[in-house]
Amino acid sequence: MRSGTALREGVWHGLVGAALLSVVGGACSYTVVSPPARFVNLESASTAAPGETVAGVHGGALSGVFDPAVVTGSVGVRRGVTEGVEVDADATYGRLQYDGFPGIDRNIYAARVGAKARNVGRYAAAFGGLGGGYAPAGGGFLAADVGAVLSLPNCYVVPSLIGSGIASVPVGAKQVDFVSADGTLAASDKAVTSYGFSLGVGLEVLLSQARCRAGLTPPRIQLGVAGTRMIRSDAPRSMTTTGGETTDRDGYGVVGLTAGFEFPF
Predict the structure, then answer these.
(1) Which range marks the domain in which residue 132 is found?
(2) Domain of 80: which CATH number?
């Protein structure tokens, strides 16, 4: 087993087709998964009013075992179509946060389009989306998600519970070589179709009670805690590294803090 310094090398790999090293069951393992198209989801059950456009910025820091695994930011827009139905689109950039394995490009690029429909009582909604992206280290991917959100509607502070299922397919997947700074090859892996889920709790602080009471979207601050788990379609599997270690590994999971701000225009 490796030292604590070596263990920390693993926490940043693999959320988006770049590489992943983490500690499971007392053994080090190196696994690449195909990622989701959206990394931060802070929506409540509310939807934009018909003809209303809402823009937003969101970010998050998601951690694996020891250190932050990835810092991500996105910009997006929502558009009300009819009463209780909106469409949305967002673009995301992410940056993996560890300096080990210096030859691996740590950048992430993704985009997604989707839609959401809420009930008449404004406390529940269903959503879904399609998207994809590219990680220079691991290749491209296409992803879909579908989920639901429950909220406590009011014009002050809105708590929400958010859950979704995710499927992701690599496109032009590349082999990822885990090469240390001294040139030692620790392991190699390549993304395969992955599936998973995301769970989170959110809190929206509404900044205009007048707009809320009029049935419009107020400017709002969004805070949340969320976790994502992605599982490879070939799991469970055994993997032997170039150092002779053999381990069972099926995917990757992270949890972290998220925040955002949305405003109508």
Answers:
(1) 4-264
(2) 2.40.160.20
